[in-house]
């Protein structure tokens, strides 16, 4: 009598079945069946097993690898000794054969790199807040790379399983921006059959080496984002890289730390935390928590491992706000509830077997945390505050065309869609960084509407967004020589995202209308005048005493502009309580951000000089005159042609 099928809760039986399968069809992979793997795939072991069968064949009938292609004729072959081609004398001369020599060469090359200080990584997000001498960086981008350590099943395997990607040297630019390199030592065999290393360096804001822990990564980039969310700002973190490079491990560590900080905050009881999770596959978007009761009760995570996903629509409203339809929000009253929701969502992401990973994520996973005040009653004005938002995005595993050539047509189309969305993300980050330069806001187009993923991040990419935003991109790479082509591809994609904006090639004229550059006296004077105007508006209540000097007298223009919206409201309402104070704070904050955005988008001449309104009007009038003259010229030309035709 046949044994009943295993359920997803039969952990130990599944462990035995997976070990049996790997031992039969892929013995080298048997070491991967660990507690960590069983925890990761809890609730969906059947899906994992199906992925394995697709890649390695039915149990006991492993798929035989395809034979290597025949060598090309000598007249058209690559130079001897290149890559895995035969070297002089007909001997197979590849990287694996010279492993010991390459290990020695790498040791010599890395010995000259100064040892990094034992100090913890700096708060990278905070350090990026303002490199510009003229204007506030309202949306900053921090670019990091993380080189994962060698995994236990990779140690002692010989061949190309040796380290060739390491943290490089650090430097500081003239504008004060600090960079750290990721050094790639590509092993190659020369035409004469001698091993050599090809050095390539990529600059990042910070490079986390194999010894870096998740705690170190979180302190540098996760904790500052959590603080920003608590202050009402927007934080985004992306992880990009080849499948198996440690993206998901890094993102899970960041998510764990962020969750801990959100509930450890002293004001946690006064806040409401909402959680959503969606997966993006090209133009298809699914809610991974669709079947759970919105509002997130303690028992809402009981359906772990289910396939409860639902289609989500993303678009823009007439007022420019991004709208999501059919995306559920779940209130998490405790850390345990939020952890349970995260577990359910991650278990429902789509995975497939690829050349590099049996369980590669084939969709972009987007976790959305919204942090807002617990209530908006009592006439406090809290309902007018914008909630803080965090987007934790685990991008789908990147693949080169060469990796997917053996895949089905559907899988190749899927890979194409993933790579297109990654390209859109790259273009948006570069364009938005360029737009941060004084006067660049009008000359740079940020194509965030090209993909649903970047449209969802409109606050980050829109130059007119009236919120402080901070984005971190982590490029995850493997240190091994066997993965050097993939790792180099990842670094080549990620490194250009870092665009230095601190030093201008031309002298930039300071903008006296930019509130970031105002003195204490100028800022207090403007606040007082604006408050008086707001009190005189139709429908306003009786004027209330407002002393800007008492609230902001010790702060510069930059410091006031950097205040979180919640802190700004709190200061105003400490002097003007009730609904009147809430309304006044809202109008003052909106007016301040209008000035900030105007300063970012104000036109400048190529030499950095501000174009005045009179000059802009004169240029517009001259353009109209020129256009009218051209129209008259064309009319005369048409009359002349008509006359010539009549004579003929």
Describe it.
This protein has 648 residues and is of the alpha+beta class. The protein has 18 helices and 17 strands. The protein has three domains: 1-67, no CATH class; 97-497, Kinesin motor domain (Kinesin, 3-Layer(aba) Sandwich); 515-601, Orthogonal Bundle (DNA polymerase, domain 1). The chain is 37% helix and 17% strand. Strands 1, 5, 6, 7, 8, 9, 12, 15, 16 and 17 form a ten-stranded mixed beta sheet that branches. A hairpin with a 5-residue loop joins strand 3 (178-189) and strand 4 (195-204). It starts with 10 loop residues before the first helix and ends with a helix. Mean pLDDT is 77; it is low at 66-92, 130-134, 295-307 and 376-383.
Write a compact overview of the structure shown:
The radius of gyration is 29 Å and the shape is globular.
Classify the fold: give the CATH topology of the largest domain: Kinesin
The percent of residues in helical segments reads 25-40%
Mind telling me the C-alpha Rg?
29 Å
Number of β-strand runs: 17
Ends distance: 101 Å
Strand content: 15-25%
Structural class: alpha+beta
Report the total helices: 18
The shape is globular
- CATH-derived architecture of the largest domain: 3-Layer(aba) Sandwich
| Low-pLDDT sequence parts | 66-92, 130-134, 295-307, 376-383
Largest sheet: 10 strands, mixed
How many domains would you count in the coordinates? 3
Mean pLDDT: 77
User: Under the CATH scheme, which class of the largest domain?
Assistant: Alpha Beta
Full CATH superfamily name of the largest domain: Kinesin motor domain
Describe the secondary structure blueprint for this structure.
Elements lengths: L10 H15 L9 H6 L4 H12 L42 H13 L12 H4 L11 E9 L17 E8 L5 E12 L5 E10 L1 E3 L5 H17 L3 E8 L5 H18 L6 E11 L2 E4 L22 E2 L1 E4 L5 E4 L4 E2 L3 H13 L3 E2 L7 E2 L2 E10 L14 E7 L14 H27 L16 H5 L1 H4 L7 E9 L6 H11 L25 H17 L11 H5 L4 H5 L3 H11 L2 H24 L11 H35 L1
Parallel strand pairs: 1-5, 1-17, 6-16, 6-17
Antiparallel strand pairs: 2-3, 3-4, 7-8, 7-12, 7-15, 8-9, 10-11, 13-14, 15-16
């Amino acid at each position: 009598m046949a044994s009943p099928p295993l359920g997803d809760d039969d952990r130990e039986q599944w462990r035995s079945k997976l070990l049996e399968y790997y031992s039969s069809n892929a013995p080298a992979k048997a070491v991967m069946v660990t507690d960590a793997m069983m925890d990761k795939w809890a609730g969906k072991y059947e899906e994992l097993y199906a992925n394995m069968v697709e890649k390695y064949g039915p149990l006991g009938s492993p798929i035989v690898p395809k034979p290597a292609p025949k060598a090309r004729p000598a007249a058209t072959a690559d130079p001897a000794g290149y890559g895995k081609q035969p070297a002089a004398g007909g001997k197979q001369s590849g990287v694996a054969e010279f492993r010991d020599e390459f290990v020695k060469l790498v040791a010599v090359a890395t010995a000259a790199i100064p040892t990094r200080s034992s100090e913890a990584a700096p708060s990278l997000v905070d350090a990026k807040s303002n490199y510009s001498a003229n204007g506030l960086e309202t949306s900053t981008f921090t670019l990091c790379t993380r080189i994962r350590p060698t995994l236990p099943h990779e140690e002692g395997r010989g061949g190309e399983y040796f380290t060739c990607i390491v943290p490089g040297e650090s430097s500081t630019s003239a504008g004060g921006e600090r960079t750290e390199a990721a050094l790639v030592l590509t092993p190659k065999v020369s035409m004469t059959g001698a091993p050599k290393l090809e050095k390539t360096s990529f600059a990042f804001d910070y490079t986390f080496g194999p010894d870096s822990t998740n705690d170190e990564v979180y302190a540098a980039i996760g904790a500052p984002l959590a603080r920003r969310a608590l202050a009402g700002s927007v934080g985004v973190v992306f992880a990009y890289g080849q499948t198996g490079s440690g993206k998901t491990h890094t993102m899970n560590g960041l998510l764990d730390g962020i969750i801990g900080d959100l509930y450890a905050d002293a004001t946690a009881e006064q806040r409401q935390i909402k959680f959503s999770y969606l997966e993006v596959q090209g133009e298809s978007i699914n809610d991974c928590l669709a079947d759970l009761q919105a509002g997130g009760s303690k028992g809402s995570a009981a359906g772990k491992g289910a396939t409860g996903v639902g289609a989500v629509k993303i678009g823009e409203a007439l007022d420019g706000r991004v709208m999501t339809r059919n995306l559920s929000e779940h209130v998490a009253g405790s850390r345990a509830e939020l952890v349970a929701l995260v577990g359910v969502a991650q278990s429902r992401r789509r995975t497939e077997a690829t050349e590099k990973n049996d369980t590669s994520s084939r969709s972009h996973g987007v976790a959305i945390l919204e942090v807002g005040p617990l209530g908006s009653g009592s006439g406090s004005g809290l309902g007018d505050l914008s909630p803080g938002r965090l987007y934790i995005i685990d991008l789908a595993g990147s693949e080169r065309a060469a990796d997917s050539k053996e895949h089905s047509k559907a899988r190749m189309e899927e890979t194409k869609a993933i790579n297109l969305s990654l390209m859109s993300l790259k273009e948006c980050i570069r364009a938005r960084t360029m737009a941060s330069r004084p006067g660049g806001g009008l000359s740079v187009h940020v194509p965030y509407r090209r993909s649903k993923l970047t449209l969802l991040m409109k606050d980050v990419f829109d130059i007119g967004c009236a919120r402080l935003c901070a984005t971190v991109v982590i490029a995850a790479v493997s240190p091994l020589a066997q993965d050097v082509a993939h790792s180099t591809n990842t670094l080549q994609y990620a490194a250009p995202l870092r665009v230095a904006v601190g030093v201008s090639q031309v002298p930039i004229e300071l903008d006296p209308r930019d509130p970031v550059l105002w003195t204490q006296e100028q800022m207090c004077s403007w606040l007082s005048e604006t408050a008086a105007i707001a009190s005189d508006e139709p429908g306003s209540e009786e004027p209330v005493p407002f002393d800007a000097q008492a609230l902001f007298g010790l702060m510069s223009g930059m410091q006031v502009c950097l205040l979180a919206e919640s802190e700004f409201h709190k200061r105003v309402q400490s002097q003007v309580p009730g609904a009147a104070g809430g309304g006044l704070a809202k109008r003052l904050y909106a007016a301040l951000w209008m000035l900030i955005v105007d300063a970012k988008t104000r036109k400048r001449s190529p030499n950095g000089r501000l174009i005045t309104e009179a000059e802009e009007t004169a240029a517009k009038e001259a353009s109209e005159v020129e256009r009218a003259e051209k129209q008259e010229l064309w009319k005369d030309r048409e009359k002349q042609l008509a006359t010539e035709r009549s004579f003929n």
